[in-house]
Amino acid sequence: MIELFEILIISIVQGIGEFLPISSSGHLAVTEHLFGRFGKPLTGSEADFIKLEILLHFGTLIAVLIVFRQRVLDLFGKDLRLIPLLIIGTLPAVVVGLLVKKFAPWIETELYIISACFAVTGFLLIASLRSQEGEKTCSTMTWIDALVIGSVQAIAILPGLSRSGSTIVAGLFRRLRREEAATFSFLLSIPVIGGSGILELKGLLKPNPEPNSLAPYLLVIGMFVSCVVGIAALVWLLDWLKRGKLWYFAIWLFLMCPLTLVLACLPSSPLQKQQVPIQAVQEQPVEKKVEDKTETPSTHSLKNAIENIEDSGRENMSDEETQREFEKILAEEEAKEQALIAEEQKRIPLVEEPDKLIPLDPKDRIWLTPDGRSVVILGRIALREGFLELFACRVGTKEHESIVSVRVKPFLIHAALLAVGAEPGKPVQQTPEFVPPSGDEIEIIVRWNDQDGQRKESSAQDWVWDAGNSQENAKKPMSTHWVFTGSMQYRDESGENHYIADESGELFGLSNFVGAILDVPIKSSADNAELLFACFTERIPERHTPLTLILTPVKNKKR
pLDDT for 439-482, tens place per residue? Predict the structure, then answer.
């Protein structure tokens, strides 16, 4: 959860940087890196950061409306001519902003770019000394003036390049009076700040299912602080501009330039690797995602051992006693794991004539049916309640977000589906535009024995509640089918190829994952605030219940 101290720091940086000619985006990115390297990394879910970013911008928008309230009112009276000029000045920023958001969101946190842009902004402020006092006002400026200033604003989307500083300097060189150049600059900020907030408004309205989500009062505090600090920064800037002291801010930027460059050159710290940036929550490269999400059965046991020591109330033991206790608990966890594996080796799949199944691998519990039309896998119930990212995952990975866990190696499931004639399509594509997963449709049937030993059967879809399209009091099961996308591969630094599902454990997805073997052919986010599917708890057996999964390409059923 984001703490009050973090909120205050971020809000102050946003309020100051949005209006002083020093770049709020650049200073926010540097602040996040400093938090991650030398202090506590910024915490919270992706939904928290989106909400916070929206409200901070709304706070600074309110500051502009308060300070320039009379000029805003005049837009609908004596300054009516200024509205089309503001539209002309806004269009370049809209076009460039959408392109950057779609194709290069990573640029917003790139410290090397920020360092260079700090220097560029400093030189622009010094260049303002060469501009002569103009006579134009917002009422007498031309559409060319508006287009030039708007184009400069579009370029200032680069982090570290101050929007207010660059547009004010552009206005001065277009022979606007100092106060009028600042007025047009900040009137021009209203549609930009407001528009970016509206584009992300759905993130603010989405509920966050996480128990430790950001408290609403912290959001209000952040918006209030950014507004108050923004008003003070605006008054400060206007006063210095009148006295011709705009270039003073260049001194600060020339100090920030080398400091940011040094920060960019330092190796990443462990804290920084855990950081979630507020400016651009982005999809990480495949290699990074795999590294972060990988959890093998052995690390799963290690985590259990540590939790058992903490739960035992023996935190004050000596180092030797702690080591012995740790080794004892770890041995017990490994023994349980081996016993579970041995038990599964004895399990008989719940199919007709199981002795005629064709084993695909002697060590893994996966078979082909005698007619070569279906794949048979053994698994267990891992989860009965909560929102879901997956229907099935590999043991020791994402069992907290998946109904079923299986011990079979993912690449064997992929191979088995190929063996029964399923043709893989393509995993989800998120950029430059969303393209849904594709491939042959796969039916998943689940079989298990109830407490009385009676065999039960269900479609996997009936265990998934379509929470995005039905209410709690009128639940509807998932109607979307799965498609065989086939997990992607990635190449590590040594040039060796890896099958993503083997490392991430993502088998049958309910959110779009490039590593999933099966995925849903719709847009389905993995953001905790936007999960579409949840457990249909009433229909799912008790946790740890053994079960059999039968995967059949739909085209095989039609043959």
Answer: 999 999 999 998 888 999 999 999 999 888 888 788 899 988 89
**Preceding amide of 432 cis, omega within 30:** yes
SS3 10: helix
Q: Is the pLDDT reported for residue 72 higher than 80?
A: yes
Pair of tokens at residue 93: 């920023």
Q: Rounded to the nearest 10 degrees, how much is the dihedral formed by the CA atoms of 236, 242, 243, 248?
A: 50
Domain span at 310: 297-344
Place of tokens 């893994």: 364
Same domain, 268 and 324: no
Which has more confidence, 349 or 491? Answer: 349
What percentage of the chain's residues is helix, strand, coil (to nearest 5)?
Answer: 50, 15, 35
- 67 and 116 inside one domain: yes
Closest by Cα among 133, 150, 237, 135 to 187: 150
Label the pairing between strands 455-459 and 390-394.
Answer: unpaired
Check whether 527 has a pLDDT greater than 80: no
Q: Answer yes or no: do 373 and 453 share one domain.
A: yes
Per-residue pLDDT tens digits for 12-60? 999 999 889 999 888 988 888 787 666 554 555 455 666 788 888 889 9
CA distance 81 to 388: 53
Contact call for residues 222 and 55 (beta carbons, < 8 A): yes
Query: Would residue 289 count as lying in a domain?
Result: no
Residue 537 and residue 516 share a domain: yes
Is residue 278 one of the residues assigned to a domain?
yes
Indicate if 321 and 354 belong to the same structural domain: no
